[in-house]
Amino acid sequence: MQHNLNPRLAEELRSVAVVPVLTIEHEETAAPLARALVAGGLRVLEVTLRTPAALAGLGRIARDVPEAVVGAGTVLTPAQAQQAIAAGARFLVSPGMTPRLVEAAEAWPVPFLPGAATPSEAMALSDLGYRVLKFFPAEPSGGVAALKALAAPLREIAFCPTGGIDLDRARSYLALPNVATVGGSWVAPAAAITAGDWATITQLAREAAALRLSR
């Protein structure tokens, strides 16, 4: 069943400190943005399906930046998942979970990272074989303190917190044993993307990637 790929995704995520969460407004910026992040040491990228250009941008990265491992985020329906897979997504991320998504995920050829914000949601997904989960929205849901409290009763689950995290907060999350990686948009600020300031983005990526070495 598809969810057996989920633990393998945990290994991939543990190899990086930060997964950039990318909002692509213009397709043509996608590949240079991905190259800038990879140059800084961040090769696992999540393109959120929140804009009209998202799927085309994801496709550009998959085709033109093969050294990147690009996935789709904000996957809310099975139809979106299929579109993202067709565009070249190598993993799929959802802010939550629905029975329809989980059922459809069994047939997907790529790993699925569903979201959980409560112990009940995490336990339900664990029962289905998911051992790595998105924790969203991280900061409003209790942040580091919440994940620290979940570590003892849910010791087999690793989390990828996303939402309200910056470089300083990332350090605190990554110090927790049940955090595989963190997701964040701070490494790809909209102003830098608009300006084509790829050097700044590479530097932000380099700072974020260095967190892996301090774990």
Q: Could you please describe the fold and organization of this structure?
A:
This protein has 215 residues and is α/β, with parallel strands linked by helices. The protein has a single domain, classed as TIM Barrel. The chain is 44% helix and 15% strand. The protein is built from ten helices and nine strands. The strands form three sheets. It has a four-stranded parallel β-sheet. The chain has a three-stranded parallel β-sheet with strand order 6-7-8. It has a two-stranded parallel ribbon with strand order 4-5. Helix 3 links the parallel strand 2 and strand 3. Helix 2 packs across helix 10 and helix 8 runs parallel beside helix 10. 45% of the residues are buried. The mean pLDDT is 95.
